[in-house]
Amino acid sequence: MNPGSIPNAEEVRKQVTPKKIHCPVCDSKMIEREGKNGKFYGCSRFPSCRGTKKL
Asked: Which residues contact residue 41 at a Cβ distance below 8 angstroms, ignoring those fewer than 6 apart?
C-alpha cells in the first residue's frame, strides 16, 4: 500500500455525495453552515425554523 495515495478526509468528502439530511424540527432540507463554534447543519428554513445538527 502506498501511503501517499491514501486520501485525506477533505478529499473524500468532495468525492462522495452525502445523503439528504432533514431537519429534526420541521423535516426540511439541512444546509452546511459555519458559525462561531465551527461547522454544523442548519435548517434551510432559517430563521423561521432553528433546527440544527452536528456535522
From this structure: 21, 30, 31, 32, 33, 52, 53, 54, 55
